[in-house]
TrEMBL record:
This is Delta-aminolevulinic acid dehydratase. The active site is at K192 (schiff-base intermediate with substrate), K245 (schiff-base intermediate with substrate). GO terms for biological process: protoporphyrinogen IX biosynthetic process. It catalyses: 2 5-aminolevulinate = porphobilinogen + 2 H2O + H(+). It comes from Ruminobacter amylophilus. PROSITE patterns: D_ALA_DEHYDRATASE.
Length: 324
């Protein structure tokens, strides 16, 4: 027998030598929830190990991010007040502005990505302005652009529009350029699906819609070709990174995006994916470390350059232990 593929698997040294993909700390982006108020460290019950932090306690989590050498955080703001147009998302007094400013000043080596979406700030919980039960597209774009400019002014390196309004990448790019923020990058949630995996996030961000659902603007999970059209459109409008969200059920699209486009590909290992692993691990059904690392390596194998994941702190610790 000439072809014995097991020859390349016979010991750990050989297996490591021929390994095609790896997960490194530099691949990781850690989501952080920042709540307006004081002395807040609220656990997210549906996401074990995840908390909301007020600005005066934000250093508790940022110190861990820094110590573990995680290169970037993705910020989500939780305001004190909400209204129909999400007005608390913009301006120097917004929680996002203050959180970005704090991190930029105190953790200058960490890349700051600011989520751009109205759902955390609107009283109705939708990602855009509404008229009756209809979510308005074009009327929402100036609000998203204002939010992006607010984050850029505070010092964000990257803004990440997650709303899925048509044309928002180009509108934000033009607004950033006009305000002098030509070097601020856009990480677009290009193919974001109307997924059932987002439930725990909506607990963490307080962003569940008060009526209807998001199927009129987020993508149908049944559609793949449409995802490629969305990505191509965002690239044409000026995106610097493209994202597929969620991750595990959509790895076919991560792979296709990697094969078709030259931009960095990001995938979001979302809250439901995280919480299912945590729940199964706590019940003793699975080996958490091995499952998490297998999930993340599948994302890298599919073609993801970067992974947004709530597992980032654990993964960085595991990788650090393996290096010692």
């Amino acid at each position: 027998m000439r072809n014995r593929l097991r020859r390349l698997r016979q010991n750990p040294v050989i297996r490591k030598m021929v390994r095609e993909n790896s997960v490194d700390t530099d691949d990781l982006i850690y989501p952080v929830f920042v709540a307006d108020g004081e002395n807040i460290r609220n656990p997210v019950n549906s996401m074990p190990g995840i908390f909301q932090y007020s600005l005066d306690r934000l250093s508790e989590i940022m110190d861990r991010v820094k110590a573990l050498k995680i290169p970037a955080v993705l910020l989500f703001g939780i305001p004190l007040t909400k209204d129909e147009c999400g007005s608390s998302s913009t301006g120097d007094h917004s929680i996002v502005y203050r959180a970005v400013s704090f991190i930029r000043q105190n953790y200058p080596d960490i890349t700051i990505i600011a989520d751009v979406c109205l759902c955390e700030y609107t009283s109705h919980g939708h990602c855009g302005l509404i008229s009756g039960n209809r979510i308005l597209n074009d009327e929402t774009l100036p609000y998203l652009a204002s939010m992006a400019v607010t984050a850029a002014r505070a010092g964000a390196h990257i803004v990440a529009p997650s709303d899925m309004m048509d044309g928002r990448v180009g509108f934000i790019r033009d607004s950033l350029d006009r305000e002098g923020f030509k070097d601020v990058m856009i990480m677009s949630y290009s193919a974001k699906f109307a997924s059932s995996y987002y439930g725990p996030f909506r607990d963490a961000a307080g962003s569940a819609p008060k009526f209807g659902d998001r199927k009129s603007y987020q993508m149908d999970p049944a559609n793949g070709r449409e995802a490629i059209r969305e990505i191509a459109s965002d690239i044409e409008e000026g995106a610097d990174f493209i994202m597929v969200k969620p991750a595990l059920a959509y790895l076919d699209l991560v792979k296709e995006a990697r094969e078709r486009f030259l931009l960095p590909v990001v995938t979001y290992n979302v809250s439901g994916e995280y919480s299912m692993v945590k729940a199964a691990a706590q019940a003793g059904y699975i080996d958490e470390k091995r499952i998490v690392m297998e999930n993340l390596i599948s994302m890298k194998r599919a073609g993801a350059d970067l992974i947004i994941t709530y597992h980032a702190l654990d993964v960085a610790e595991w990788l650090s232990e393996s290096d010692n």
